[in-house]
Amino acid sequence: MTTRASGAAPVRLTRQGPVATLTLTPPKGALGPDFWPAVPAALAGLGDARVLIVRGEHLFSVGLDVKATAPQLAPLIGSEAGFLNAVQAMHGAIEALAALPVPVIAAVHGWCIGAGLELISACDLRLCSADARFSLPEVKLGITADLGGLQRLPRLIGLGRAAHLALTAEPIDAPTAERWGLVTEVLDTPAALFARADALAGQLAALPAAALEGTKRSLHDPAPHHEAMLGAVRWNARHMSVQALAAALKK
Q1: Which one of 57, 95, 138, 170 is the catalytic residue?
Q2: Catalytic (active site) residue 57
Q3: Candidate CATH numbers 3.30.70.1280, 3.90.226.10, 3.90.230.10, 3.40.390.30; the one for domain 3-205
């Protein structure tokens, strides 16, 4: 099958059949000011892709490029409106990823720090290689993580473990991340990780798209239990495929 590519550094979007891969390519894995608008711009090129894999090039991410970003943010300290406006591009990138109707798989190797960890918390599935390390070090810099990680991580790994990451700034290794539920699989090597991510993406891409989207919507529905459950019923009423149901019953 052919691979189509679009976009440019600091991200690269490639396509292999129904599976797209967004590769983070900033120098040394540091997410600078040019990274954030590049993400939604790349995602706009997904087209009819059924699954997205998010990965790094030489490692996943060392987090925010503080040296490049600080000059933009420092003059705005004390101005809530100005600071919020400056951070909107960062929020927009991660929220665009979270809002995708297709499953998003994070494949993490090497360091996944700060903003990188907040980014993968917006993905649906997270895999890593044995060399992966995860850290939320913002408190050591005198700041509070503000890109959605503190809101998403408690739901993923529990409030206590999220608090441990955020308040101590201590890194965790791949086995700990799996034990905590941050990732669901640990592969021996980055090569094995990427092969597994490709295989899993292919498996998902073969499933009915409407069923995947409806499941994803229900998993993230913020409505109270009963309303969210009815939302899933309504989705099925609109999108259930009789053909797919009949085929499944024959298996």
Answers
A1: 138
A2: no
A3: 3.90.226.10
